[in-house]
Amino acid sequence: MKIATYNVNGINGRLPVLLRWLHETQPDIVCLQELKAPQEKFPLQAIEEAGYYAIWHGQKSWNGVAVLSKDPQMKEIQRGLAGDDEDLQSRYLEVFVHKLLICCLYLPNGNPAPGPKFDYKLKWFARLQQQAKLLLDKQLPAILMGDFNVMPTDLDVYKPERWVDDALFRPETRAAFHELVNQGWTDAIRTLYPHEKIYTFWDYFRNAYGRDAGLRIDHFLLSPALKDRLKTGGVDRHVRGWEKTSDHAPVWITLSE
């Protein structure tokens, strides 16, 4: 089973890129982030014509997450995280499909840091930790996946010394990620490639993709029930080189049945 995550950076503007990639790679399950589309503007017909069913949580102009699957037996479990009734940002969606709990997330960027946006990022991270702990307590076959907006280690960022004050790399952000993983989750891509430079994002500016000045900020965290089912994984980095593409590349793993 092939499972992928992709920050599309605007699903309608990048729809030709998304459809081309879906046709080329045929993943079974896909999590999308940064839809930048209200609920009624999700391109469902095009997605269905590509062979996928969809559950999505849209938001005008910003944010938005979706889960696509070839299996019509997909059930929404939860949208949004508990702990803040005033948080209206569309950043979290849980779906049960293929006997897996797929938790699609788009963690806040947090810049500029310090400041209110960084405070929101850390509070959202704490709420994610609480939800993740509940899932582990239930011993569910779950995957936390998506754009975490965090580079966990120096290996995950081009020239780490340039990022020390950035919200994606500040000690508080990395500590929150490691606390989450240490609950019992497995960082799938880093497990497969423990010592290799792997990037999932390249900025549009300063020829970052051409210079391979990237970041690894899109992650899969597997619950203990899935750890031994992890087989392969990678980044479809060539997609980042396509015309009118996202600044992220799709990331994928395969699990044994």
Description:
This protein has helices at 15-25, 44-49, 116-137, 171-181, 188-192, 208-211, 224-227; strands at 2-7, 29-33, 53-57, 65-69, 75-79, 92-97, 100-106, 142-147, 186-187, 201-202, 214-215, 218-222, 230-235, 251-255. It is globular, with a radius of gyration of 17 Å. The termini are close together. It has one domain: Endonuclease/exonuclease/phosphatase (Deoxyribonuclease I, Chain A). It has a six-stranded mixed β-sheet with strand order 3-4-2-1-14-13. It has a six-stranded mixed β-sheet with strand order 5-6-7-8-12-9. It is an alpha+beta fold. The record marks 149 as: Transition state stabilizer.
Write the layout of secondary structure elements.
Layout lengths: L1 E6 L7 H11 L3 E5 L10 H6 L3 E5 L7 E5 L5 E5 L12 E6 L2 E7 L9 H22 L4 E6 L23 H11 L4 E2 H5 L8 E2 L5 H4 L2 E2 L2 E5 L1 H4 L2 E6 L15 E5 L2
Parallel strand pairs: 1-2, 7-8
Antiparallel strand pairs: 1-14, 2-4, 3-4, 5-6, 6-7, 8-12, 9-12, 10-11, 13-14
Helix pairs in contact: 3-4
Structure, briefly:
By secondary structure, the protein is α+β, with helices and mostly antiparallel strands. It has seven helices and 14 strands.
- Give a quick account of the main beta sheet: strands, pairing sense, barrel closure: 6 strands, mixed
Q: Can you give the helix content as a percent range?
A: 10-25%
Q: How many DSSP helices?
A: 7
Number of self-contained structural domains: 1
Give me the secondary-structure category: alpha+beta
CATH class: Alpha Beta
Strand order of the largest sheet: 3-4-2-1-14-13
The averaged pLDDT comes out at 97
